[in-house]
Design a protein that fits this description.
Elements (H helix, E strand, L loop, with lengths): L6 E6 L6 E5 L2 H6 L5 E2 L3 E3 L2 E8 L8 E8 L11 E12 L4 E7 L4 E5 L4 E9 H5 L11 E10 L10 H39 L1 H6 L4
Antiparallel strand pairs: 1-8, 2-11, 3-5, 4-5, 5-6, 6-10, 7-8, 7-9, 7-11
InterPro entries: MATH/TRAF_dom, TRAF-like
Pfam family, one: MATH_2
Protein name: MATH domain-containing protein
């Protein structure tokens, strides 16, 4: 899991793209003996996921902990399965109507497999900040979390620039450059002829115009 100094936090107005999880009567969880709570299942990238929430913290007792988990209901083509994911987790600011987005700054892409089914943040948010009314995360005993899970899959689309295509591009660019150079030479010769004509016919004007 990401260390606190490897976490990137930032505000945004757009809601999470994949899942929003609202908790009412948060005090019932906080005051109970429940240490770990899993959300309902949501789908993203062809796989099923859950949010895993620790109201009293998992790695630290003074922080909320929040993770995304790949669900056991998924089926895989082989036993050595793995799913590469870019993910963000969110908490909603009910006062400012925006979201605090939290992501892994050091390794934004994580691999879920049979050995590691959860990734997230043991120090997602301090309990002091979460419980502070002016922060807006917990109001009227209600809070909202969210997730974006982008599955990175191998693409079936690729492109190749052949030798023939490369030569065609070079020839085309060469012709363009040749035309530009030719036009430039004509323009330079024209200017020189005008200068010569002016200096020959009206020497004083040539001096005044500084054409020599």
């Amino acid at each position: 899991m990401a260390n606190d100094n490897e976490i990137l936090r930032g505000k945004r107005s757009l809601p999470p793209a994949d899942y929003i999880f609202k908790i009412k009567s948060f005090n019932l969880l906080a005051d109970s003996t429940v240490n770990r709570f899993e959300s309902g299942v949501f789908e993203s990238g062809g796989y099923y996921w859950r949010l895993v929430f620790y109201p009293k913290g998992n790695e630290s007792s003074d922080h909320l902990s929040l993770y995304v988990k790949i669900d056991e209901s998924n089926s895989y083509s082989n036993a050595a399965w793995s799913v590469n994911v870019y993910y963000r987790l969110f908490v909603y600011d009910q006062i400012r109507k925006d979201y605090l987005a939290v992501q892994d700054a050091k390794s934004p892409v994580r691999t879920f497999d049979q050995h590691t089914s959860e990734w997230g943040f043991g120090k997602f948010l301090t309990l002091a900040e979460f419980n502070q009314h002016l922060k807006g995360y917990l109001l009227n005993n209600t809070c909202t979390f969210g997730a974006e899970v982008h599955v990175i899959k191998p693409t079936d689309t690729d492109g190749t620039l052949s030798k023939e295509d490369s030569l065609a591009v070079i020839r085309e660019r060469g012709i363009d450059c040749g035309c530009n150079q030719f036009v430039g030479c004509l323009f330079t010769a024209f200017i020189k002829s005008i200068k010569t004509l002016i200096i020959d016919r009206v020497p004083c004007l040539g001096i005044l115009l500084n054409l020599e």
